[in-house]
Give the backbone structure.
Amino acid sequence: MPIQSINRTVPPFSNRVLDVNESLTVATFARMGELKRGGADLISLVAGEPDFDTPDNIKDAAILAITRGHTKYTAPASGLPELKRAIAQKLKRENNLDYDPSQIVVTCGAKQVIFDAVVALVNPGDEAIIPSPYWVSYADQVRLMGGKPLILKTTEETGFRLTPRALADAITPRTKFILLNSPCNPTGEVYTPDELGALADVVADAGIYVISDEIYEKVVYDPAEHVSIAAVHPGAGCRTLLVNGFSKAYAMTGWRVGYGAGPPELMRLIAKVQSQETTNTCTISQYAAIEALTGTQESVETMRAAFQERRDLIVARLNRLPGVSCRLPQGAFYAFPNVSDLYGERVSNDVELANYLLEAAETGCVPGSGFGSGDHLRFSYAASLPMIHEAMDRIEDAVSRI
Ligand code: PMP
Ligand code: GLU
């Protein structure tokens, strides 16, 4: 009998899944792809991924892994021992942090380790503190596990920084962790060591965990420097899950390799969740990741310098638009201009403005509300200089017609 003709009530879907949003960045990226395939002359400043190719030495390591037959599951599933050792050495060398390789879990992108940590930490009703603007996935990952995201709004006035006072005031007996993201997607802000130290004092006093998403560590612009909160305060450090990965620093978004490093018991639980979920991330990608960490780092600096030039261009051009103001990001590759002065009769919010720019300027960006701020739009500047020039010419013209 054809399956459609079985006559019975369809069982309801999970409320938890029905209640969360699809990732706005992933969905907008998919929409851009569809429009482009349909022939639209579109400039997409949507994707949160380097437009550079993965460096050749990394690709070659993956090809070698295949020819050598490294095409099976890894044992243990939590990551190739050689890769865990390379990560532990990196964390010592660059971040001044001591982790035993057994405290490291290699995952299918940084996104998975964050989600697995949420699975490991959150009971229904538990609270997670998330400073806004935030990366789109944090709050919904918490909701998916029945937790409550407690969004703490920050604005341009405080440099999009969470203050220790605001953090202390938000902590309740149900607080499990705070999610920190520095350098930040979407604002590009980078916390200073002193600011991290002050937040870490509050964290250590309260005894909550920190999930520290440091995926943009390598995309930082002088004079800002990246420091891990785990390194500034031993009391907070022993409760920190440091999250990092290969997507941004090595242009490896499609390879799906990230990792977490943290306290032994938490890491055991994260490994347990992963063992029931994906087993291990792609073995070939893990061999590529070993090369990324141990081979030449030349391309990391080349990409960083290119992003800096693009940042300077896009921010200068955005600030020339009437009704638009944009802080100079210190890291990552996003400009996050405040566009609220453009709201009026023609467009009344960020979603309408993003749609207007898509139609009138054939340029794609992501509405800020996906990141917790309807006053902003997010433009990725992981695009060539000529493309940014062209996009800004189009936007200038479209904005003048609002
Ligand atoms: N954290 C942030 C802040 C991000 O922008 C991204 C982008 N994808 C991720 C985590 C996840 O990265 P991935 O899963 O590709 O390692
Ligand atoms: N993190 C990137 C972004 O913010 C890639 C898409 C995603 O995983 O959210 O656009």
In short: The chain has a mean pLDDT of 96. Residues 118 and 341 are 37 Å apart (CA to CA).
